[in-house]
Amino acid sequence: MSDATIFARATGAGRAAITILRVSGPKAGPILEAIAGRLPPPRLASLRTLRHGTDVLDHAVVLWLPGPRSYTGEDGFELHLHAGPAIEHDVADALVTLGARPAEPGEFTRRAFTHGRIDLLQAEAIADLIEAETSAQRRQALTQGDGALSRLYDDWAQRLRTILAHQEALIDFPDEDLPPEVEARLLTGIADLRAQMDAHLNDGHRGELVRRGISIVIAGAPNAGKSSLLNVLAGRDAAIVTDRAGTTRDAISVTLDLGGQRAVITDTAGLRETEDAIEAEGIRRAMFHVKQADLVVHLYTEPDRPAPLADVPVEDVLTVCNKTDLHPAPDGVLGISATTGAGLGALQAELAIRVTRLTHSAGAAPLTRARHRAGITEARDALAEAERAAWPELRGEALRVAMRALGRLTGAVGVEDLLEAVFGSFCIGK
């Protein structure tokens, strides 16, 4: 893969003042000399006239980034061009003529991984950082990109290597008078490591919630004002609002920033007994969303009393009384009016508090992907199997299984089947 020299746009599409093309690979130096003259000093922005043959392509800022101190670990450069499409097209043609090719999605970051500049966890963090929509997502991606998870898993792998070395000694030298405390320390080390993995897994899925966003569902009886509340929170007419009960048949979702966290708020069909087949299907879908939600806003109006939501834990439900412009909310219940706006500030503040509580993480960096959770679960289960093993050889094999599971997380071992899935989701220029 690294035999080719690749290029791609590093800036977004659309009208702009500047377009950045980045190039990486073994021919980067000769190509830059061919279009810009002599190489500029490393990592120093230089204004150059770009030429291809006798044709002047642009007056551009050039950055020469020789490896291994570059993003990919290879020689590379950046061209900060005027953003006219004709300029980008002609410069790209010149690069192809001089021996470069367009990059595949994620190929720059994949090369950084291949050359040891980053590990697989950091590569995923870069993808998350590009996609970050909220401050919380940005902070989490930066923490992972700085190696917080990598350092934790590398520490576990180092401890596991030591444990495995002691286990191999017990297998290879069964007739030697090894001190009995060797096996005792080994078993204690396995138990401690397994306990740490258990604690890491028992994080309430906080990292994954930050990454994908909190699911908040508005549920309640017909005409409780669910669609009106969704529209007010969204700041636009996302859902149809009428006085007719059963107007909402399908789920309607909007994405908001609540206290720096991404939240997906969904309006659902009114919950009631009905013989209308279409409305009944809407109610079935509403209950599906309610049971999948991280938080449910159970909306009702006085003097009605809200019936409990089936199969939904009480701690996941925020009961809110709407239409307080007509009837006041009872004591202890948050009251709002989606019509006048009364109480909406208090509701948004309470939602932000609950979202922050769901995503708050103290201590080690949280798991952010199902792949991470599956790998740690496999390693934890293998350690539990090692603790139960009756024979030293079986214990040793279980420890090796745990080592391989940790190695796949960072990309240390056995990752070829993961690379396409990880890097295929990147934009072309990353």
From TrEMBL:
<dbReference type="GO" id="GO:0030488">
    <property type="term" value="P:tRNA methylation"/>
</dbReference>
<protein>
    <recommendedName>
        <fullName>tRNA modification GTPase MnmE</fullName>
        <ecNumber>3.6.-.-</ecNumber>
    </recommendedName>
</protein>
<feature type="binding site">
    <location>
        <position position="117"/>
    </location>
    <ligand>
        <name>(6S)-5-formyl-5,6,7,8-tetrahydrofolate</name>
    </ligand>
</feature>
<feature type="domain" description="TrmE-type G">
    <location>
        <begin position="213"/>
        <end position="356"/>
    </location>
</feature>
<feature type="binding site">
    <location>
        <position position="22"/>
    </location>
    <ligand>
        <name>(6S)-5-formyl-5,6,7,8-tetrahydrofolate</name>
    </ligand>
</feature>
<comment type="function">
    <text>Exhibits a very high intrinsic GTPase hydrolysis rate. Involved in the addition of a carboxymethylaminomethyl (cmnm) group at the wobble position (U34) of certain tRNAs, forming tRNA-cmnm(5)s(2)U34.</text>
</comment>
<keyword id="KW-0819">tRNA processing</keyword>
<keyword id="KW-0479">Metal-binding</keyword>
<keyword id="KW-0342">GTP-binding</keyword>
<dbReference type="GO" id="GO:0005737">
    <property type="term" value="C:cytoplasm"/>
</dbReference>
<dbReference type="InterPro" id="IPR004520">
    <property type="entry name" value="GTPase_MnmE"/>
</dbReference>
<dbReference type="GO" id="GO:0003924">
    <property type="term" value="F:GTPase activity"/>
</dbReference>
<feature type="binding site">
    <location>
        <position position="78"/>
    </location>
    <ligand>
        <name>(6S)-5-formyl-5,6,7,8-tetrahydrofolate</name>
    </ligand>
</feature>
<dbReference type="InterPro" id="IPR025867">
    <property type="entry name" value="MnmE_helical"/>
</dbReference>
<feature type="binding site">
    <location>
        <position position="248"/>
    </location>
    <ligand>
        <name>Mg(2+)</name>
    </ligand>
</feature>
<dbReference type="Pfam" id="PF12631">
    <property type="entry name" value="MnmE_helical"/>
</dbReference>
<dbReference type="InterPro" id="IPR027368">
    <property type="entry name" value="MnmE_dom2"/>
</dbReference>
<dbReference type="GO" id="GO:0005525">
    <property type="term" value="F:GTP binding"/>
</dbReference>
<feature type="binding site">
    <location>
        <position position="430"/>
    </location>
    <ligand>
        <name>(6S)-5-formyl-5,6,7,8-tetrahydrofolate</name>
    </ligand>
</feature>
<keyword id="KW-0547">Nucleotide-binding</keyword>
<keyword id="KW-0963">Cytoplasm</keyword>
<feature type="binding site">
    <location>
        <position position="227"/>
    </location>
    <ligand>
        <name>Mg(2+)</name>
    </ligand>
</feature>
<feature type="binding site">
    <location>
        <begin position="267"/>
        <end position="270"/>
    </location>
    <ligand>
        <name>GTP</name>
    </ligand>
</feature>
<comment type="subunit">
    <text>Homodimer. Heterotetramer of two MnmE and two MnmG subunits.</text>
</comment>
<dbReference type="Pfam" id="PF01926">
    <property type="entry name" value="MMR_HSR1"/>
</dbReference>
<keyword id="KW-0378">Hydrolase</keyword>
<dbReference type="InterPro" id="IPR031168">
    <property type="entry name" value="G_TrmE"/>
</dbReference>
<keyword id="KW-0630">Potassium</keyword>
<dbReference type="InterPro" id="IPR027266">
    <property type="entry name" value="TrmE/GcvT-like"/>
</dbReference>
<feature type="binding site">
    <location>
        <begin position="223"/>
        <end position="228"/>
    </location>
    <ligand>
        <name>GTP</name>
    </ligand>
</feature>
<dbReference type="InterPro" id="IPR018948">
    <property type="entry name" value="GTP-bd_TrmE_N"/>
</dbReference>
<keyword id="KW-0460">Magnesium</keyword>
<dbReference type="GO" id="GO:0046872">
    <property type="term" value="F:metal ion binding"/>
</dbReference>
<dbReference type="Pfam" id="PF10396">
    <property type="entry name" value="TrmE_N"/>
</dbReference>
<feature type="binding site">
    <location>
        <begin position="242"/>
        <end position="248"/>
    </location>
    <ligand>
        <name>GTP</name>
    </ligand>
</feature>
<dbReference type="InterPro" id="IPR005225">
    <property type="entry name" value="Small_GTP-bd"/>
</dbReference>
<comment type="similarity">
    <text>Belongs to the TRAFAC class TrmE-Era-EngA-EngB-Septin-like GTPase superfamily. TrmE GTPase family.</text>
</comment>
<dbReference type="InterPro" id="IPR006073">
    <property type="entry name" value="GTP-bd"/>
</dbReference>
<dbReference type="GO" id="GO:0002098">
    <property type="term" value="P:tRNA wobble uridine modification"/>
</dbReference>
<dbReference type="InterPro" id="IPR027417">
    <property type="entry name" value="P-loop_NTPase"/>
</dbReference>
